[in-house]
Amino acid sequence: MLGAVAGAVPTAIRAKVHSHSLTDPSILSPELREAGVHTLTVFALHVPDRLLTEATNDAMRETPQRAVLDSLNSVLAEPIESLLITDANGDPCVETKTTRDLEHALRLPGGSIFHGDLAWPWAEDDEPLDTPAQRWGVDTGIDGVLLCGAGARRGGAVSGIAGHSSAMAVLESR
Question: Which of 64, 100, 111, 150 has its CA 20 to 30 A from that of 54?
């Protein structure tokens, strides 16, 4: 299996798949809702940003898209391509965004929704724990500014715990 270790887009992409339109059909036009159309979002974390350079980003867009479709097909009874709606040219209505695209559009470092590499949620033995912000994993190094988002040390990612930890650090500082 060709993959990131070999310096290529993985042939099998691990991903999270969900459909926003199943729980919120208002994201679709009335015509699409009436036609029974739904969206499918595939969130693939394991396509390293280092494989997508500025020069090759557009050229490589087809490679991860094909790998995602192949990965979906590997667990479905029938190929997903038969379910994709097409545009006036007959092309599938699929939008592929790479980590580089997310970095440019949303200013996410490396295109990571976690705002950087994830770390273990506990404090290491040699970490400074002198302040409440350090103990709660929300220290930014700027006095009075706490990290409440995905990049927080203990409980970051998309858990929402970082807001709680920031509030606890504020309360402990009083």
Answer: 150
Is 70 in contact with 62 (CB distance < 8 Å)? Answer: no
Residue type, 89: N
What is the per-residue burial (b if ≥16 Cβ within 10 Å, else e) of 133-161? bbbbbbbeeeeeebbbbbbbbbbbbeeeb
Q: pTM surpassing 0.70?
A: no
**Residue 41 phi/psi, 5° resolution?**
-110, 130
Give the DSSP H or E segment for 17. Answer: strand 16-18
Quick one: tokens of 23? 């729980």
pLDDT tens-digit map of 23-77: 999 999 999 999 999 999 888 766 666 666 555 555 556 777 888 899 899 999 9
